[in-house]
Design brief:
With 147 residues, this protein is mainly beta. The protein is built from 2 helices and 11 strands. The strands form 2 sheets. Strands 1, 2, 3, 4, 5, 6, 9, 10 and 11 form a 9-stranded mixed sheet that branches.
Length: 147
């Protein structure tokens, strides 16, 4: 896995699958990861990787791992870099795109899915300025296989 290039993203394991959080620099990827981990709204949430992650298709699944030099580290804006417990590998079950230009109040069916490394996955586009945590919790609560 270390031979695969890194992706500018953050990942959090929530139950049996991980949420891959993408977005431009400063869009709140690390903040959302901390919200998922610390909110108490999920029975289980643990960091996989922050800022740079490796993503690899394997046996019809998309796996995510932290970049080795950043494993267990997360940026907390205003405090700096902090260390958290982390998962060394997880299967991605949802891709969240922060500050997504195609986010809509009532999204078309095609916006709810994307492909990465040849694997099709559910996608949640989040409009700029919209709080992503409530959307993710609603999505997780409405999809039986999400956790």
């Amino acid at each position: 896995m270390s031979d695969t290039p890194t992706l500018h993203a953050t990942a959090v394991l929530t139950g049996r699958t991980a949420i891959l959080i993408r977005g431009p620099s400063g869009s709140g990827k690390s903040r959302l990861a901390l919200d998922l981990i610390q909110s108490g709204a999920l029975p289980f949430a643990r960091l996989v990787g922050d800022d740079r992650v490796h993503v690899e298709a394997a046996h019809g699944r998309l796996l995510v791992r932290p970049a080795a030099t950043l494993a267990g580290l997360i940026e907390v804006r205003g405090l700096g870099i902090r260390r958290l417990p982390y998962e060394p590998v997880a299967r991605i079950g949802l891709i969240v795109d922060l500050a997504a230009a195609d986010a809509a109040r009532l999204p078309p069916a095609g916006a709810a899915e994307t492909a990465l490394s040849g694997i099709s996955l559910p996608r949640l586009p989040v409009a700029p300025g919209l709080a992503p945590l409530p959307l993710i919790l609603a999505w997780l609560g409405s999809v039986p296989s999400a956790n």
